[in-house]
Design brief:
Length: about 800
């Protein structure tokens, strides 16, 4: 029996949700049915009572016909026949007639008329009431109509299966009666008119109510935080405010309660998972402190579960877009509540990955990553990325990846690409690829008692025992996860990621998910098993040759192929010449417009293809790529030119014989063919890097510096050497550093204003010395008053004009 009990699986969160919902629905239905039945009984009794009173007042009881006077027709006919046969009384004497009457009165029950229901010797009740006679008559009962039964799930007992049924509530038969009674009650009840409030009064009243609710929430939250173990029951009171029914403040109060509960759970939740107690643990006697802790943990888990159910219900209400009977929250407010609920779920997903019901939160969040609402989708994707980045062990990441993989497959790969782009944030650097990874960190095995007895003395055994005990305690104190467990989780996670990627490559090659898949393969390609290399390279080459991919997607294919070959693929004899040719052919698609974003991927591809595989690259190929890169640097943005020139500098250091491109004399036979797409046969050795002279006059100072450095042969020392901040950075880092995405020039442009003079001339220092003396002399002269006669000057001027 114990083994069977242990084998039973713990019910999942969905089953618990379904069970709780069914129970709540049954309870609600039973309660409503009971109320309706009691109300109907009460109404029927009242109606019968009113009818009886009306009948007693208005009507009189109808006297019933005496049953003795009722004589059947057959008996009348028989008596008539007997009378015809009998002698007439007129022919009898008076003495004989009197004798017959006396005998009739003294006759026994044998000679008595049996048609009468009363005995002869009993006197008649003269004053018997007519209603009493009416009550003595047997009544005919009306047969009740058969009620329709609902068949429920049967119950299994020791004796067997017991069927279960329930009467179907008959609402149609008594509908008219209930409506009539409700109309009567409405007529009787006169409601007091509610005084109408102005808009300002309504806003003041709402503000007052909201302030009271806020104070109540703050009081409960502070009490719980001050002593969580003692005040854990107040969580239920705070959670009950999620059902706020006041339409004025319902939405705001619910949002505040959701956020408050989320912060409370983040603060009071322990750093371990709470498991349910076994029967043996419940029956054992424990201390008061332990019992208090257990009650706190049970209350915390139950309230946390109910809180998650409330959040899920808020999201479902928004999705279904159906008003509830209470009509407290409008349809427009559903989205606001749902956004707050989703934000709380995302916060709990990131902050409590170790606690109970984390997998259930994942099941709620993952479908919302593909939601039509952009804000909710981005919120969930960011939360998952944050979880991946901070998950060091990999347990939570594995759960999320499993759910995402199943969701993508269930939707037939019709999901948002952002879902798969979250895989790029996984912290996976090594997996169990090689067989000897198990031998890297073998767990230390302690000696058995027999081994100690054979090899050690008694004193040594004693010291060895103490040493082993100390080592065990130190391991428990560190509480660090073993490398083996971490590698195992990472391997399982990466397998799920690759399964998702390979399914899309196989079944949905024209899906919008392909760029995300190729980007993910490019990042994790060095961790793929060697068995899949040949097939994967064939698939990538087929995708490139199909022509259905965009330029950036084809670059991801090239990058993935060379990541595969740079890792474990070194042992394979695969010639990737077709990938070199494709990149060389498509380099000129880069320009200063939209494709400038692809320069970063090109720089990464060049690093993997040429620098890391220097032993497999010929000199002709290196010369062709250097020449094409210098030509490309003329037509892109400054940050792209810096990155390309930095790559050219690395290639010139990696392949020293490429310095012949700095000489204008041709080497060998042939003419350089720049339009040829084959880097091996374009005769790049017969050309020179004349582009560097044009780049030396570039408007960007860093481009000028790099061009001058390359023209000098890329020296590491001397006047033409680069500064450390330029020489020690990679090409991708320089590309990002001098990016112009923020519409700023880096380094900033110097101002063209001339330098300001240190001294300023003031007053008469601006004037010449002679002019200054003349001014002083005129100022010192005494002014003589004379009449102002302008006419003489006017006459002389007119005379001159006339002449």
């Amino acid at each position: 029996m114990k083994a069977r009990r242990n084998k039973k699986q713990v019910p999942s969160f969905r089953k618990l949700l379904k069970t709780s919902k069914v129970k709540l629905e049954n309870k609600l239905k039973n309660k409503q049915h009971k109320q309706q039945s009691t109300l109907k009984k009460y109404r029927k009794e009242q109606r019968k009572l009113r009818q009886a009173v009306k009948d007693a007042v208005s009507k009189k009881p109808i006297p019933l016909e005496d049953p003795k006077r009722r004589r059947p027709v057959k008996r009348i006919e028989k008596e008539e026949e007997e009378e015809e046969e009998a002698l007439p009384l007129d022919m009898m004497d008076e003495d004989d007639l009197q004798l017959m009457k006396d005998l009739g009165q003294r006759a026994s029950f044998l000679t008595r008329d049996l048609s009468s229901s009363e005995p002869v010797h009993v006197k008649k009740r003269k004053h018997e009431h007519i209603i009493d006679k009416y009550e003595k008559i047997p009544r005919t009962l009306q047969t009740a109509p058969e009620k329709e039964l609902i068949h429920l799930l049967p119950i299994k007992d020791k004796s067997g299966i017991i069927p279960q049924t329930r009467e179907k509530p008959d609402t149609d038969s008594n509908k008219d009666e209930e409506d009539q009674e409700e109309m009567e009650l409405e007529e009787e009840i006169i409601e007091d008119p509610i005084p109408e409030m102005t808009r300002e009064e309504h806003l003041i009243e709402r503000k007052k109510k909201l302030q009271e609710k806020k104070l109540h929430i703050a009081t409960l939250a502070s009490a719980i935080l001050s002593d969580p173990e003692s005040n854990i029951k107040k969580l239920k009171e705070l959670r009950s405010m999620l059902m706020e029914q006041d339409p004025d403040v319902a939405v705001t109060v619910r949002k505040l309660v959701v956020v408050s509960l989320m912060e409370l759970f983040k603060d009071i939740t322990p750093s371990y998972k709470i498991r349910p107690l076994t029967e043996a643990e419940k029956s054992t006697k424990i201390r008061k402190e332990t019992q208090k802790l257990r009650e706190f943990e049970e209350g915390l888990v139950s309230q946390y579960k109910f809180y998650l159910e409330n959040l899920e219900q808020m999201v479902k209400d928004w999705k279904q877009r159906k008003l509830k009977k209470s009509n407290v929250v409008s349809l427009k407010a559903y989205k606001g509540l749902a956004e707050v609920a989703v934000k709380s779920l995302c916060e709990l997903l990131v902050t409590l990955p170790h606690f109970n019901f984390h997998n259930n939160i994942i099941v709620l969040i993952v479908p919302l990553m593909n939601d039509t609402s952009k804000s909710i989708s981005e919120m969930c994707c960011e939360a998952v990325k944050k979880l991946f980045k901070q998950d060091k062990l990999g347990q939570a990441s594995l759960g999320v990846v499993k759910v995402i993989s199943g969701f993508v497959k269930g939707r037939n790969y019709e999901v948002r690409p952002e879902m798969l782009k979250t895989f790029l944030c996984l912290r996976i650097k090594e997996v169990e690829v090689k067989k000897d990874t198990e031998d890297i960190n073998k767990p230390k095995k302690f000696m058995t008692f027999k081994e100690k007895r054979k090899t050690l003395s008694r004193m040594q055994r004693k010291w060895k025992k103490a040493e082993e005990k100390l080592e065990r305690e130190l391991r428990e104190a560190e509480a660090s996860e073993s490398t083996e467990k971490k590698l195992k989780l990472h391997t399982e996670t990466l397998n799920m990621v690759f399964v998702t990627y390979f399914r899309i490559l196989k079944k949905a090659q024209r899906s919008p998910l392909l760029p995300a898949v190729l980007e993910g393969l490019a990042k994790f390609a060095h961790l793929i098993n060697v068995e899949f290399f040949d097939d994967l390279l064939v698939v990538l080459h087929t995708l490139i040759e199909s022509g259905d991919l965009s330029y950036q997607e084809s670059l991801h294919c090239v990058q993935t192929a060379f990541h595969i070959l740079s890792g474990q693929g070194d042992v394979l004899n695969i010639d990737p010449m077709k990938f070199y040719t494709h990149l060389y052919k498509t380099l000129f698609k880069l320009h200063a417009g939209a494709t400038n974003d692809s320069v970063e991927i090109v720089l990464q591809c060049l690093d993997v293809m040429l620098t890391k595989r220097r032993k497999q690259v010929s000199q002709q190929r290196a010369l062709a790529f250097i020449k094409r890169l210098c030509t490309l640097a003329l037509q892109v943005l400054p940050n792209s030119s810096i990155g390309i020139l930095a790559t050219t500098r690395i290639l010139m250091h990696t392949f020293p014989k490429t310095d012949l491109l700095l000489d204008n004399e041709s080497q060998g036979s042939g003419v350089f063919l720049p339009e040829l797409d084959e880097p091996e046969y374009c005769n790049a050795q017969n050309t020179a890097l004349w582009e560097l002279h044009a780049l030396r006059r570039h408007y960007h100072p860093i481009v000028q510096r790099f061009a001058a450095h390359l023209m000098a042969g890329a020296p590491s020392e001397g006047s033409e050497a680069l500064k450390p901040e330029l020489s020690r950075r990679s090409a991708v880092e320089l590309f990002e550093t001098y990016s112009m995405a923020a519409m700023t020039f880096n380094p900033p442009v110097e101002s063209s204003n001339p330098k300001k003079k240190d001294k300023f001339l003031q007053g008469d220092l601006f004037l010449n010395e002679d002019l200054n003396e003349l001014v002083k002399r005129h100022c010192s002269e005494v002014a003589i008053e004379s009449p102002l006669d302008f006419t003489k000057y006017l006459k002389t001027s007119l005379r001159v004009d006339f002449l």
